[in-house]
Amino acid sequence: MSTDTAAAATAARSIRNPVLAGFHPDPSILRVGDDYYLATSTFEWYPGVRVHHSRDLVHWRALGGIITDRRLLDLRGCGDSNGVWAPDLTYHDGEFHLVYSDVASFASGYWDPQNYLVTAPDIAGPWSDPVQLHGRGFDAALFHDDDGTTWLLSMSADWRPGRDRFAGIEIQQYDRVARALVGRPRLLFTGTPVGMTEGPHLYRHDGWYWLITAEGGTSWEHQVTVARSRELFGPYEVDPDGSLLTSVGRPDLRLQKAGHGSLVRTPDGGWYLAHLAGRPYSPLGSCVLGRETAIQRVDWPSGGWPQIPGGVPAEEVAAPDLPAHPWPADPATDHFDGPELARCWSTLRRPASADWLDLRSRPSHLRIYGGQSPVGRQSPSLVARRVGATHCSLETVVEFDPVDHRQLAGITAYYNTLNWHHLYLSRADDGRVVLELLSSDNGRRTPYPELTVDACDVARVGLRATFDGPVVRFEYDLGAGWRQLPVDLDATILSDEHAALIIDGEPAAWGFTGAFLGLWVQDLGRDGAYADFDLATYREH
């Protein structure tokens, strides 16, 4: 065995968490033969339902997203952190089944969810037209029982003032042939005193039905709860030893917010739990990287309850006894040579389509036609990638000839419509092309006119945005080398915690998505302005 091969084999014995760094929450894990898949939430970003693939639970590669066009889901007008919540991926009778929730609201206790189901013979598609399921709650998931029946589970929402909005977990039969729900829904489980019972997944093992749920909300009080029953419809008894996994009361742990888990079984009978977690910059502080995906080893003795050592998330766990299967590393630089966007990129509220993205007119360039303002929710023009480390950067070269102040193109450190930093080219009233900086903190915009840079007579401009822990810095290159703008910007406003807003006890906004680095073009006059980006380089430092 070569030294490299031996090293790879040794590395494969340990899973290092998080396995999916940056914004990858609500994991649904699935094994089909020798292949493992992780599907995660994407909210207002396309492609929806991001999927990763592994052969050893250690090394993961991005396959892109399943919801690639409006046929599967239209996100025009989608609010911040609305859209695609908690997908569920299963495989039965030679078909992949994906259930996903489209959540439209937070206001006054209403969610306005709509659940959909699509199927495909292969994880790469083609995916069927969506089947519209119920809208009684979100976090819907399928369970395929041993007798051939299929059931849909979800949390049961109750909008009525004074009631528990998380009324429990309900179940209803799904007819795979008719592609429709049949019969009446039944309340399966009302949760524990921890509350906020959601994220159900049901399994059959050792003569029991096992119900895995998320409780405590998706922040610091999050946990994974296990209940079991001999009968499908219950009653379900809760594990007397408490939660399977949680970070509650352990601010010393690097992985916080541990919860929303799903189980997978390896060929040798071992069990693992995929779950979300956050890595705050300080104890119970800002999670700029968002909610990430981690995997824990589960001990499940015959006749007993599943257990995770200590009931807390570990940063490193023993991997299954499988051959190491690393994937080729993605190149740091995207030269935009392909016919489609690389899988590392996401687009905001509209798919990556030819009506605003062009990779053909100018070889090795990405042409982005300008879209709406930062608060526009129908047709923004933002191409971005997840921030995956506390120290990372995105660098690009842009060519842009703005006509007036309504046309802007540049680079951004972005969270949502209200929280972002943007370094951009535009045209000043005196006719000069200028480089300007603008920040938004919960909608309060801060310009930096003293930092304006004259960019006249420069055809190509280099731009760089860097996350340096709690600080964001911007640099530019007008042909004479890189120069840094002399201001340290607050990276923590690009966090889940900062985006959340509670008014009179009601959630007016949530933060579920984590930070992005991206290429942003605005054409507020709708005059057909576009910018050409020659390359984009992402590095983690």
Automatic annotation (TrEMBL):
Gene3D superfamilies: 2.60.120.200, Glycosyl hydrolase domain, family 43. It holds the Pfam family GH43_C2. It comes from the Bacteria. One of its GO terms (biological process) is carbohydrate metabolic process. GO terms for molecular function: hydrolase activity, hydrolyzing O-glycosyl compounds. The keyword Hydrolase applies. Residues 333-539 form the Beta-xylosidase C-terminal Concanavalin A-like domain. InterPro entries: ConA-like_dom_sf, GH43_C2, Glyco_hydro_43, Glyco_hydro_beta-prop_sf, Glycosyl_Hydrlase_43. This is Xylan 1,4-beta-xylosidase.
